[in-house]
Amino acid sequence: MRNVAELAEAIDAIAPQVLALTDAPGMSVAVGIEDDVAYARGFGTADLATGRPMDTDTVGPTGSDAKPYTGVAAMQLVEAGIVELDGPVNDHLGGLRIVNPHGERPITLRDLLTHRSGLGTTMGFWSLVPPPPLDEHLRRVFKDKRTDMYGGGLMPLWATPVGIHRQYANTGIALVGLLVQHANPDGVSFSEWVRRRIFEPLGMTSTCFPPAQTPEHVPAHIDERRSVGYATVGGLRLRLPPLHAADYPAGSALTTPSDHARFLLAIAGGGRGVLSGDAVDEMLTPQDPIGLAGANTGLVWNVFEHGTDDAYFGHGGEWMWGWHNVARTYRHHRVCVVVNVNQFDLGDQGSSDRPSHLAGRLIIDVVNAWVRGEDPRPRRDEAGARSHLVGLMVADRLGGRLGIGTPLTDEQVADIAAAVHPGPGVPWDPHAFVAAVREVGAVEGGLPAVADVWRSSIPTSMRDLLSRQLGVPGLAKTAELLEGLL
């Protein structure tokens, strides 16, 4: 029996530290188990101007984390025999014909769902005003043959032949949305089809997938609960004008983490009313490696460690310039986690280091440890955990790393602890520091001693958090390497 109380206690303890580390205003988290949302909570602030708190009913944009909705909608038409997964999409685009000038074969739905149509990377064709209808927008894109970044001069619209190379393209998923709009048997818009065939059956009453995030297209009961998104840089939080993406089937959905968790649990449970188990298996079958060990593209989904008991799938997304959403689902365990953060950093860090991305990933670390059978709760308070980690680092730097064979004396360790000058607001526990240095025994135990202390003292769910708080983000990866070697 899973101890959900342990998981809840761990997230409750670690989430405030995550917000402090990333300077994110707020964050909403949901964890689904089997058929229900077992944990949901908001942290921080949804609107800095009014002080409105982030809570479980707060609605946020998903960004690209909505692409699985679009993929499932298309697979529903495949299941119905209306569309062929490996048939030409030009048969279902309402008269629009797309031809890759580098390719010798037609583009298929599978190509679009795996980002292998040959389209170059597009951002989504954003604007300060609501976009034109999807048909009109895509006709213009393929007529002009230009991408959107920096006036289309940075990346060609067509980058490679069909099926040769994975290149993330929002416009490719917009084409999938257009296909759904023209091929669905109800003759309704893409947004209405997804509402009828995904959101309504799953009871996702706080979710919509509008062509524009305006009151005209977003139900009032959803719109009034939206968080405010903030662009951050250098300690500043900016509220930028609302933006609209013309490639809207690639990511304009609004939802709560709890609602999105219901969708993920349905997929983990074999489709449960929205898709068959065979179609789910097809979507979660690796199609193409994405550069990381054990990481692959499925049909829209990113799939990891496929074929193992700890396999998981997920996606992530961001909405310019103020939100990030990320989700992970452990299919074998029937567990999912969803995190929405109302922050987007304007810097050009890699996505894993962008504060909003990091916030979501640190919460996922907690759930990941719990799913794998660990107790994710911190074994010390923040001051004790940080100070213990500092002690471990000092012992390693003064001893093992330099190969010094003489351990520090108790007096030397006490002198170091007494002379520490914490910065304003920095937690410090000299007793935990001293205990860590003594436990390692300087260099006497060598690498095994360092690794043993790391394993016994710092739970997996806190390693990346603590190491990043100390400015050494590679420390957690080093510890994992040590665990694998010793």
Computed CA radius of gyration, to the nearest angstrom: 24 Å
Topology-level CATH name of the largest domain: Beta-lactamase
Counting helices, strands and paired strands, the structural category is alpha+beta
How would the global form be characterised? elongated
Q: Reading side by side through the largest sheet, how are the strands ordered? A: 3-2-1-15-14-13-12-11-10
Portion of residues within helices = 25-40%
Strand content: 5-15%
Beta strand count: 16
- Can you tell me the residue ranges where pLDDT is under 50 for at least 5 consecutive residues? none
CATH first level of the largest domain: which class? Alpha Beta
Tell me the count of domains. Answer: 2
Number of helices: 16
The CATH architecture term of the largest domain is 3-Layer(aba) Sandwich
> N- to C-terminal separation?
31 Å
Give the rounded overall mean pLDDT. Answer: 92
Within CATH, the superfamily of the largest domain carries the name DD-peptidase/beta-lactamase superfamily
Major sheet details: 9 strands, antiparallel
Task: Kindly summarize this structure in a few lines.
This protein has 16 helices and 16 strands. It is of the alpha+beta class and 486 residues long. Helix 1 (4-22) runs antiparallel to helix 10.
